[in-house]
Amino acid sequence: MASPREETRRDEKLDANLALDAIEKERQQIQDELHILDAKRYALRARLNGRITICTLPVEVVAEILTLLAAADFVRPLRKRKLGWILATHVCWYWRSVALNTPRLWTNLDARLGLRWTKEMLVRTSNNPLTVDISHRPYEVVKALCEPFSRIKSLTFTHDKFQMPKWMSFLSVPAPLLESLELEAAHQEYEFSDLLLPLPAPFLGNSAPRLRSIYLQCVIVPWGSPIFSETVTYCRISLHDPTEPEIGEPRELPDFPTDEYSHTGFSDDESDVPVLNDDADDEQTQQNAPPALEAGPGNDHVNDDTEDEDGEDGNDGEDDNDEEGTDAMMAFQWSSGHSTHGLVHWSPSELPSRSELLDMLARMPMLKTLQLDHAIPSVSAEAVSAASWARKVALSHLTMLKLQGTVEDCLALVPSLDIPYTAYLSLRCYFEDADDFMGDPIHRLVNLLLERNQLCETKKRPTRSLHLRPCGSQGLTIITSAHLTDTFNRGGDSTDYIFNLELHQDDGAEWDRALAMTEIMSRLALSSCKRLVIAAYGKSLSPEEWLDILRTQTQIEEVHVTVAAMAFTEALADGLEGQSTDSDTPLFLPNLKILAIRKLDFSEQKTRGDELFWKRLLVVLEKRGKRGAMLDTLNLPLSKANTSNVAKLKRRKIAKQVILCPC
């Protein structure tokens, strides 16, 4: 039997337990009241935010703002990326709901965002057309992007040459919505720059009814493929990697190890993947959002649980060890004998025949831009019938034609194309021998330009620009157009005729090219030339020879000497000096308004030669001014001699405006 003292202690413990229960119950009641207050606070904040101007914008306006932000926030190659426009979707619950219900915001898919975000964005796109960019990513990411192939509107596919064959099955299905296609088989080493990837037939299931733009880099589509159809307006085919040395030029090959070497050109490691920054709502956003839009799988993001151990959000851990991608990486091993996985080396036999190319172009009558880089039929590789030589393909809508190949192949193709006289024509020709610069090929090239210019003159739309510049060790680029829009940043449809000569050295093969370029200029003798640009032309001609050429260019209004060209500049000074104050003597370059001499080479004459030349030039220009032919602008290099004469130049009738520019 318990003593009275023990009973008292037991009663005290019971009373204490009852008191604790009461306290806990009271705490729970307070918590419930706080939850009610929080709900009211969220509701009041939502009502308050609903009165803010940006939260009352129409749905269409908010969607357009987000669309513009998304379009401006582009992917930067080889960098981690956070999509800044995603933050704008967290302004408030209203903006967030608009974003999630605007599928077009999520239709621009980039493989560098990783597998998880690729799948999430595909869900958000609903059934809208997709713009897909695939570059050097693991197999699972590529597979996820290509599964909805029937919805792809624009596809850019850039991958390693040795990895692309395993994805060719994705490109064999019909593409009913495809409008733009870019395929590039890339590789980082010179050794493999001339390897080409033949694409299997049927390509795109022989069905791409909306295709308008085609760009193929180091891949070969069957030349008779139906994708080359009347809907195509842009076609560029390049069978050589533009980042590598030109075909036929010396190559500096990398030093490979003697043992087997895994050579892939990319890594499957997702740690270098640009990541999407769609961070969970921060504290302020949570305060602004009602409880119903609390972050969760149904409403928001993959990002709530995408924080990886390395601290990078959005990277896909499951891609880091992609077995199929890793196996593919190891499929090519560098050794004494290596597999090329069905790739073929560039050679004339891989080019289309003349009839195949003309048939392909005939199926694309709406072409506006055509560019063929090392994809022109080789004249020496096939026997061409007389009927094939006589055949012409009409491309009446063409505005730009760019050809790159041997001079013989370019000259054989151009006459077969019936293009508008206003079209921009660029020929990047390669000569097999330096002697060809002064042989039959260059004469045929000049005749081609003469015929084109005569046609333009007949149409009363003279050629307005002609540019010549060297390319590679045995190449020459010729650009001619009746509409100058992209050179010298002048913009618009310039009415100037520009003859541009560019040369970087004065000896060796450059000398032959200089003579060839001079041959073109002297034979054309274009009377419509208004703007003459001489760049680093050096000693290719004597001052007397330059003077003879300048006398034929009676319509020149501007002369620009951009780098050292003493022979030309002396010829210019001689011509100007030959005119006296006698009004009966014809003016030399009578329409000259702008003279710009940026830099001269006085390596032999030193400073004294500099001073004498400029004094002589200013004297002859002053004589010209006295005959009422004062220049509008005189642009001279900043030098001690010219600086000391600035005050005199302002008083003498030489030019309305004198500008001194540092060299």
Automatic annotation (TrEMBL):
It comes from the Eukaryota. Keywords: Coiled coil. Residues 13-40 form a coiled coil. Gene3D superfamilies: 1.20.1280.50. Residues 54-110 form the F-box domain. Residues 267-284, 305-324 have a biased composition (Acidic residues). Residues 241-254 have a biased composition (Basic and acidic residues). This is F-box domain-containing protein. It comes from Hericium alpestre. The lineage of its organism: Eukaryota, Fungi, Dikarya, Basidiomycota, Agaricomycotina.
